[in-house]
Write a structure and sequence with these properties.
The chain folds into three domains: 79 residues, Orthogonal Bundle (Arc Repressor Mutant, subunit A); 109 residues, Periplasmic binding protein-like II (D-Maltodextrin-Binding Protein, domain 2, 3-Layer(aba) Sandwich); 90 residues, D-Maltodextrin-Binding Protein, domain 2 (3-Layer(aba) Sandwich). By secondary structure, the chain is an alpha/beta fold. The strands form four sheets. A five-stranded mixed sheet has the order 4-3-5-12-6, with helices on both faces. The protein has a three-stranded antiparallel sheet with strand order 10-7-11. The chain is flat.
């Protein structure tokens, strides 16, 4: 592997390999920690252990970016192959494997950041389950759930609003832009947001109007990628969960004279009809995985 000349056999820990692949995919120790349910320091320690075992530097780090070294680029496709083989072996030995179909709905941003690892593992360990995922706004997901088009839905809700499902995630929200100059107190704030109804949009407008800050809607897009593009073009500022801020964008706030934002919540809802064993299993996996990640994320943000 990687052209190493070794006089002894090196056994690779698949847990370390999974951490490496996740860091490579996320380009961030922090986001890899959220995805794997570990603290940033634990991710860093695992990467050091893997690099020590291989005798090669796999990542190049600076305060805001993680870049693969040539050795890391060479290892990555082999690491993915190793993980696929591991997960397929585990699935093949699962005597109580389940079958059926699961239809899951989730907001695009939450699905993009928090669900891929969970759903990938579920698909590999339960290959007889047909899994379909729909990304949409919360209001549309609720309609599809009521219509019987979804088995499970993850939706954004108000923390102090009516009870709606089981809370699985609480999101600290932050103001995001290319730089704080877009929030100069002497100018009308240009806001980038998803169409209404959107919890983040509501949070931004409520906070601005409560403080009397003039604002205008500069760019509206239902797509997270579209919002990111508008941010990078310098068209305005937006509100995002802290753990979903791209590394090339800046978190701005008190220093720019912007008001604090109330947290948002994500809840898991199930269809009112009888749930299949596959849907129940995925629901339990999501709840367990997100509970672990939330605990680790809270611990990370409390670290000095």
């Amino acid at each position: 592997m990687m052209g190493l000349k070794m006089n002894r056999l090196i056994n690779l820990d698949t847990d370390l390999i999974r951490t490496f692949v996740t860091v490579a995919d996320m380009r961030s120790f922090t986001r890899a920690g959220v995805r794997l349910g570990r603290s940033q320091s634990a991710i860093s320690l695992q990467m050091r252990r893997l690099e020590d075992r291989l005798g090669r530097a796999l990542l190049s780090r600076d305060p805001r970016h993680v870049v693969l070294t040539p050795a890391g680029e060479e290892l990555l496709p082999q690491a993915r192959q190793l993980l696929r083989l591991n997960d397929e072996m585990v699935a093949g030995l699962n005597d109580d494997d389940i079958e059926g179909e699961v239809r899951l709905g989730a907001p695009e941003d939450f699905a993009t950041v928090h669900l891929p690892e969970i759903l990938g593992l579920f698909a590999r360990t339960h290959p007889k389950v047909a899994l379909s995922v729909t990304c949409d706004l919360t209001l549309n997901l609720l309609d599809r759930l009521r219509e019987g088009a979804l088995d499970i839905a993850l939706v954004k809700r108000e923390p102090l609003g009516p009870e709606l499902g089981v809370r699985v995630w609480r999101e600290p929200l932050v103001w995001v832009a290319t730089d704080s100059g877009l929030a100069n107190p002497g100018q009308t704030l240009a806001l980038i947001a998803a169409p209404s109804p959107c919890v983040y949009r509501k949070r931004a407008i409520t906070a601005l109007e409560a403080t009397g800050r003039p604002w205008r809607l500069a760019y509206t897009s239902p797509s997270l990628a579209g919002q990111h593009a508008a941010l990078r073009a310098g068209l305005g500022i937006t509100v995002l969960p802290r753990d979903m801020v791209p590394s090339d964008l800046a978190i701005i706030g008190e220093a720019a004279g912007l008001p604090d934002l109330a947290e948002a919540e994500v809840a898991l809802l199930k269809a009112r009809t009888a749930m299949t064993s596959a849907a129940e299993r995925l629901s339990g996996d999501i709840l367990s995985a997100l509970d672990r990640r939330h605990a680790q994320a809270t611990e990370r943000h409390l670290e000095p």
